[in-house]
Specification:
Length: 249
């Protein structure tokens, strides 16, 4: 899932890059509107987060050009700006922005949540202690509506889920203390209602998991199980080389 951030403030670039990477997005940054339009044409992002006041080309002009191009006008575009008078907000929305977030007022968690809701993106939090183990899980779940951040610091699972509540948690039962981790997920108020799909050795199932998938059958069994729980239509899986692994912690 690719997000293009068009923003000239380097401090905000770093903050938003890290935040949306933790949400499961692959983030590309453009320093101004002109560079942003070039990136849009090159990578065709799934979503755009756009500033208004920028050098070379402002956000209003970017919105105007996106709207005029049938190949690009369907990309969901959200505006984040200090220039947030009622007339500026209405102008941006009239040019096709999905939502307008005033800088300094809008919390990062709220922006990420609103983008997920507006675009109908679903979030599956993958919990394991190794990026190597995470890669086949992420690959199996490749889907244009799925965000799959990975938590590799297992003590942070509950906090990561609480920061941006996922629809499903995939827990690697092969990690140390997997049973204890599952107990924590199922008893914490922030996570106890989230379905947990455990992945591991069928000889050692996690009894409190909502579903258990044999790790030897990830490619055939995990994807349908997640799609069913999320009510998403099935599509052909992406190849592993096209699926970077975004890390939450």
């Amino acid at each position: 899932m690719n997000l293009l951030l068009i923003e000239d403030n380097q401090h905000l670039q770093r903050i938003f890059y890290e935040k949306f990477r933790r949400e499961g997005f692959n983030v590309t940054i453009a320093d101004d509107g002109r560079q942003g339009l070039q990136c849009v044409a090159e990578i065709r992002p799934d979503v755009i987060l756009l500033d208004i006041m920028m050098p070379n080309m402002d956000g209003f002009e970017v919105l105007t050009r996106l709207r005029a191009d049938p190949a690009l006008s369907g990309i969901p575009t959200f505006v984040l700006s200090n220039r947030a008078s009622s007339s500026d907000v209405q102008h941006a929305l009239a040019l096709g922005a999905r939502q307008f977030f005033p800088k300094g007022i809008s919390a990062l968690e709220d922006i990420a949540h609103q983008i997920r809701v507006t675009c109908d993106f679903k979030k599956v939090l993958i919990c394991t202690n190794s990026l190597t183990l995470a890669e086949p899980i992420v690959s199996a779940l490749a889907h244009p509506q799925l965000l799959c951040p990975v938590v590799t610091i297992l003590a942070e699972i509950v906090n990561a889920a609480n920061r941006g509540t996922p629809e499903v948690i995939v827990l690697d039962a092969r990690v140390p203390n997997a049973f204890t981790l599952l107990q924590q997920i199922k008893t914490h108020p922030a996570t106890k209602s989230i379905p947990v799909i455990a992945v591991g050795n069928p000889a050692q199932p996690l009894n409190r998991a909502d579903e258990f998938i044999d790790s030897a059958r990830l490619g055939s069994d995990l994807r349908p199980a997640v799609m069913k729980r999320l009510g998403l239509a099935e599509i052909a899986a992406a190849t592993p080389s096209n699926v970077p692994v975004p890390v939450t912690a």
